Amino acid sequence: MTNILNQQKIPIGILGATGVVGQRFISLLENHPWFETKCVAASSRSAGKIYKDAVKNRWVLSSKIPELVSKLRVFEVESDRQKIANSVKFVFSALNLGKDEIRKIENTYASMGIPVISNNSAHRWTEDVPMIIPEINPQHVELIDIQRKNRNWKGGFITVKPNCSIQSYIPVIEAWKKYYPEKIIVSTYQALSGAGKTFTNWPEMKDNVIPLIPGEEKKSEDEPMKIWGKIINGKLQLATIPKISATCIRVPVTDGHLASVSIEFKTKPKKEDLIDAIVNFENPIQNLNLPFSPKIFLQYFEEENRPQTLLDRNLENGMGIGVGRIREDPVLQWKFVALSHNTIRGAAGGAILMAEMLVKKGYIK
Description:
Blueprint lengths: L9 E6 L4 H10 L5 E8 L8 H4 L12 H4 L3 E3 L4 H7 L2 E4 L5 H13 L4 E3 L23 H10 L6 E3 L9 H6 L5 E10 L25 H12 L2 E3 L2 E3 L5 E8 L6 E9 L5 H9 L18 E3 L8 H4 L8 E8 L5 E7 L3 H17 L5
Helix pairs in contact: 1-11
């Protein structure tokens, strides 16, 4: 493929641009070598406003609003869709609406020939929509061809990224798949930003832990089965093992999802084998040289008190996974701790990496 750096940047749009994940997309895409944000879209409440005015008193990131985007006029997601489609080559979806409404909007854009890279859960269980962590199941892009055939879509399609809560520990399990993991018990300790909140607009989280994140545990148990599934005779067959039991807890930190995991394998490996599999993980997309691809996907810490949310959530600019505290488990076999940045690796950054991969593989022209 011709080096995209020698070409004009690909114009992109962001649906749901005023929300927390939309803001993270805008921040991360500033100065991106391949993509340029040309359209920002939101609800009718923000439509027609200049972006900086639409997010006045609502911008939650520590970085400033990128200057070029701050001056863009906000489109309305549905009524302005033709204008958006005429201005961009694909869109990122960070919509915060009901699932039925999100599915309708994303389907409409895809039917108009616009690829949709979605951060939402609405299409995660649509049979022909791939749910991708690029370092784990890049082969699932083949579902795009099946999806287009099923729906008679020419240039458009929909891909989704999985729930942010699983992206700290599922990559570690992937590194150990040759030892046939069978049972997993995981507790995740999840940041406020995963709910689109801050300490300012969620003061009850100060000095508090909430032992329930509605719907999160089922996602954590079920979504890995789609990620580890196999395409057989034109359909994705879900994996059936390992069995996962999840508890998801909201904790008073701004960003970063920490996971404590116990695991049992078909045949118990040695500790040094587990560490070696992490350190020498073979990243299947490394040779694509994608801008958002971390040089070190999985980073193992020897220190007993690492990874820590504050210290380590920004590994590889938020795209790396921290792993530590591998030790024997008296109930299962082994246990460990893992950490990821939920709004970068787990949300906008993961979607951007997926889009880069789709460009290199020819699905985005």
